[in-house]
Amino acid sequence: MPDIYSQTADLVRNIFDRRIHTPAVLEAERYFPQGAEFAGSWEAIRDEALTIAGSLHSVPRFHELMSAQKAISANDGHDWRVFVLKAYGHDVRPNLEKCPATADLIRRCPSVLSASYSFLAPDKHIPPHRGPFRGVLRFHLGLSMPRGSDGELGAILWVDGEPHRLADGGSLLWDDTFTHEVLNATNDVRIALLLDVWRPEMPADMVALSSLIVAGARLAAYVNTASFSS
Description:
By secondary structure, the chain is α+β, with helices and mostly antiparallel strands. The chain has a single domain, classed as B-lactam Antibiotic, Isopenicillin N Synthase, Chain (Jelly Rolls). It is 35% helix and 27% strand. It contains ten helices and eleven strands. A hairpin with a 2-residue loop joins strand 2 and strand 3.
């Protein structure tokens, strides 16, 4: 029997799907032009993420932050750890203070609702799943993207069935309500910066609904601030 989170996510997706018809992968130049600033500063962002990785054991696993996501985070015995910098508009100040260059970029970009470093352990597989609503888009910036024994990029992100292998400094803007999955088929931790950004060009009613959803998520993030801090 579907849980309340899944039922609610399905309902919200259905509402947005009737009003928004963009593809799974979108042009960053149109939908998130500020992404170029993050991509242009990827080395500074990477250096801060690597510092956090130096004490990775203290960074929470994703399902420790969101228990509803246990099926995709705690599915195979390999860690997916997430260092949250901002959650639905709520700044996680202790974490931002550890990453001043990244924090400055986030502060200068008000369309960023959430920001985090994602650390995928070797052999970690995040199974196919979908995000809850289309009012935000996901910007994915590769920071330390490991290669396999064959020398090829070994971390794969599938979005709507299409594989994407991002190199260091590579980026992708996509709609996470489309089915997606991730595999780190290497012996090294894969590190990426994940941003959730406001979707532009929405109909007025979808903007209003998105604002309500984000306000509720922001309240939940405020209540859970202690669990986000590392």
